[in-house]
Protein: Aldose reductase-like
Amino acid sequence: MEKLVDDGLVSSIGVSNFNHAQLERILNMAKYKPVNNQIEVHPYNAQTELIAWCYARNITVTCHTALGRPGLVKGEPNMLEEPIVKAIAAKHKKSPAQILLKFCVDRGCAVIPKSINPKRMKENIEISDFKITLEDIRSMEQLNRNWRHSQDSFWSCFRNHVHYPFNDF
Structure:
């Protein structure tokens, strides 16, 4: 990746799903530090400490799976139905999805929601006309369980059968 920067093919390097120990290891040895860490962030996996750690080192954060994956895997929690999220949505006259996106954006993160539904895509874009309060953010952070969609679901089948060298970080 560093050669790509040297060759002028990319301007910066980002990483995905790195914890602070993995990032620290890279920062201590890399010619070019990562400028972004893409991580799973939602109220059940608030990542408050990791986000702060990244910001303290000028690493931006992009949130994935911010809306959860409702209905994809039976038994996984549906954050769109979380009572606290629904209450905050009602208070702001917004949808639960918009509140979950603002949970990332109003904490200074970029967010990449996935949808193939044009109505939901439009709704996901329309989040710039309000802010959630610090109290709202803290209420959602209190829901933290350090629970990841990717650890208990579909993706775990791949981790169990393939060894990746970077798993040793």
In short: Residues 152-169 have pLDDT under 50 and may be disordered. The first helix runs from residue 2 to 6.
